[in-house]
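In the previous lecture we treated proteins in isolation. Real proteins rarely work alone, and many bind small molecules. This record shows how such a complex is specified: first the sequence, then the SMILES for pyridoxal-5'-phosphate.
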Amino acid sequence: MSVYLDSNATSQVHPEVVEAMMPYLKEAWHNPSSGYRAGRDVKAAVGRAREQVAELIGAKPSEIVFTGCGTESNNMAIKSLAREIGRKASKVLVSEIEHSAVLRPTDAMAAVGFDVERVGVDTEGRLDLEDFQNRLDSSVPGFISIMWANNETGVVQPISEATALAKEAGWWVHTDAIQAAGKVPVRVDEVPVDFLSISGHKFHAPKGVGCLYIREGSPFEPMIRGGGQESGRRSGTENVPYIMGLGKAAEIMKDEMENGGMKRVGELRDLLEESLAAKIKGVQLNGSREHRTANVAHVSFDGCVASQMLPLLDEAGVQCSAGSACMTGKNQPSHVQKAMGFSDERAFSSLRLSLSIFTTEEEIDRAVEVLAWVVRDVRGN
Ligand SMILES: Cc1ncc(COP(=O)(O)O)c(C=O)c1O
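The predicted 3D structure, ligand included, written as tokens:
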């Protein structure tokens, strides 16, 4: 039996998503910019997908720009905002625990003279709001890029409070909601962010499609120019089948959240954590218990090294990861866990076990059984 517990790396494409995509590979493959009926029909279909994504986050369809991935969405927002605030006497705040798709573009800004500061988190992995507030400076132009939920721990950030403070200072707000959308309510009609990034493959759409929400009236400078698709905000002929998949996944996950699907995922995650704590000594559950997505258990196993555990788990059919997929093979403790104040030893002993709506109780039972065996083996007892 194979058990997939790495849905934060990428999630299984939902069969209904595949079904929604197929007609746009097989029959309706026309260019949505073409003027004849077949093209116009495809354009209308893209419009419906835009509505589905907009509904997931409480946006207007016209505020949704389809992109090639979450990394692209983050880069688009950050590079456009960099241009807007200018590099002289301006300031950028990000958190220590951002994904590299925010840290690397803001590092590049720092390298050319922008004042980029990183705000820390507490031991539960939540943004230090006091430090954040102290660093805001209403006398200069600025923006923040703070994630909605962390990819390693699943901890949901105080994005509402951070957005209110940044807006009060007159700053722009971008949030990487890539690990939050489709898992917890993400509503731009309730939290007035200006830019918000989404990636399809984190919630059962395929890899290689995402979107950037751009609030109406926000300044925006396109990163990719050309034929003027996406109302000139992201040129390039639309990846229609994948956009259709993203739309369907948004619809499915809205329904799952509203009708108890994610609650069930949370119950399985709790079962996983409780069983691990009951069956294995020296287990530490990391991150806020209260503020987190339903699908992540982040666990340290005293006296173990994750890099030794992972191949054994893999051999036994359990797929999970230490930290994020992007960090695989890098022999460094996770920057997220270091920001939470963990020792190197604890950081190296942690696993991220991420579930999805496809996870079953039998899989959880099997994963616990295998983990108990692997921990005994690695500890040599
Ligand atoms: C929080 C976060 N931001 C950005 C990304 C990058 O998204 P994509 O893989 O679609 O480029 C990921 C993916 O791991 C992520 O978890």
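Summary for your notes: The mean pLDDT is 97. Residues 15-256 form a domain with the Aspartate Aminotransferase; domain 2 fold (CATH 3.40.640.10).
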